[in-house]
Amino acid sequence: MNGLLQIFLPALMALFCTCWIHPYILKVAKTKNIVDNPDARKLQRIPVPILGGLTVIFGVLSGLMAFNLIGEPYNFFPLFTSIVIILIIGLIDDMISLSAKVRFAIEILLVIYLIYTTGYQLNDFHGLWGVHQIDNWFSIPLTVFACVGIINAVNLIDGVDGYSSGYSIVSCILFGAMFYTLGNICMVALAAIVAASLLPFFLHNVFGKLSKMFIGDAGTLSLGIIFSVFVTTILSAEQIEVELPDNLGLIPFTLAVLCIPVFDTLRVMSARLLKGKSPFSPDKTHLHHLFIELGYSHIGTTLSIICMNLFVVLCWFLAFMYGLSIDVQLYMVLALGLLVTFIFYPVVKAAIRKKSRLYLLLRNIAKLTRGERKGFWLLAQRLADRSVSDTSQE
Question: Which DSSP helix (H) or strand (E) runs through 36?
């Protein structure tokens, strides 16, 4: 079958299944009172259903099954089972709150399971510092550390409407483009399936009033597993079957795509440790909380952070196109990651305290994101809520 059809048809199936299942899962969440209640740390004012992750993953799994029916054979079973397990763990966490240690242990076991069932691991530096393939004694612990870090970084960006889903859609597009460059059509299809599954949820999450759901830990943990597979597939020596440019920095690329979630998580956790707190203790010190404090709307916050992340990816791409070495690409991405998180956050917090010109500028930009919800916004809201109204009448 044509390669584009192998990508397009499963993604279309994922999109359809997510749209179809959303109102039914929303109805279950409301009926069973499976909601996220407001508190001093959270930004919503009313209880919001939290089974959005179930709708997204239903679409992803449907798309994977469609791909295996019409596409070239590919062993998605390890990923399939890992997603189902972490989805169940996330649902339990959403409803009764598991301890961080239990979740952490399960994430480690799942990553080890994926390493030994798929063979994907961070075992090739692809020329970074002159290093190529590395031994298992180093690559396996490195893979576990990196993947568990990615899972938790993605899990912690679920703070404002549209952020986790919008960021994940953009990341899937970027990963899909890299997989296309590497000639891995199966992983391009996976990226397209995930993006297509997220799109309806994103629209309901941002524009919906009656149809609004949060993605919850079930969704973000599952996305974290998927992004971990993206990264390990790109950086696994066995997966590169095409001739690549000598200065194509695969490690800098993956770090650039995951830049703000990873660096912001490191910043928040290190700050908590310096204060003598648990790195997993909840607070309101993430980057998205800073934008909300400045007066940005949820969608304004989401778009601002995504644009900041895309700026880092663009800088990496320009560095690659202008022939800079892989080492320089990495150092540049690291520097930009520190700039947009570790440096940006305290500088803006200081500006807020002093009511400086920077603060006034950011406040004026924030006002542009908080326009009256009319016209296109109301039309999008009616379209998003229509499916809920139709289902309630069944």
Answer: strand 35-36
Q: Give CA–CA dist 369/303, Å, rounded.
A: 10
Contact 315, 336 (CB under 8 A): yes
Q: Write out the H or E segment, with its range, that includes residue 15.
A: helix 3-31
Structural contact between residues 64 and 17, judged by C-beta atoms closer than 8 angstroms: no
What does the alpha-carbon distance between residue 187 and residue 175 come to, in Å, rounded to a whole number? 9
29, two tokens: 């969440």
Residue type, position 384, single letter: A
Alpha carbons 41 and 195: distance in angstroms, whole number: 29
Contact in structure between 29 and 51 (CB atoms under 8 Å): yes
Residue type, 186: C
Question: CA-CA distance, 207 to 202, in Å (whole number)?
Answer: 8
DSSP 329-362: HHHHHHHHHHIIIIIHHHHHHHHHHHT-HHHHHH
Is-contact 164 215, C-beta < 8 A? Answer: yes
What are the pLDDT digits (tens) for 33-76? 888 776 655 565 678 888 999 999 999 999 999 998 887 777 88
Interhelix angle for 216-234 vs 185-207, to 10°?
150
The 10s digit of each residue's pLDDT in 95-134 is 888 888 899 999 999 999 999 998 889 998 988 998 988 9
Place of tokens 């004026």: 364
CA atoms of 35 and 49, how far apart (whole Å): 4
Half-sphere exposure of 83 (CA within 13 A, CB side): 24
Give the whole-angstrom CA distance, residue 391 versus residue 394: 5
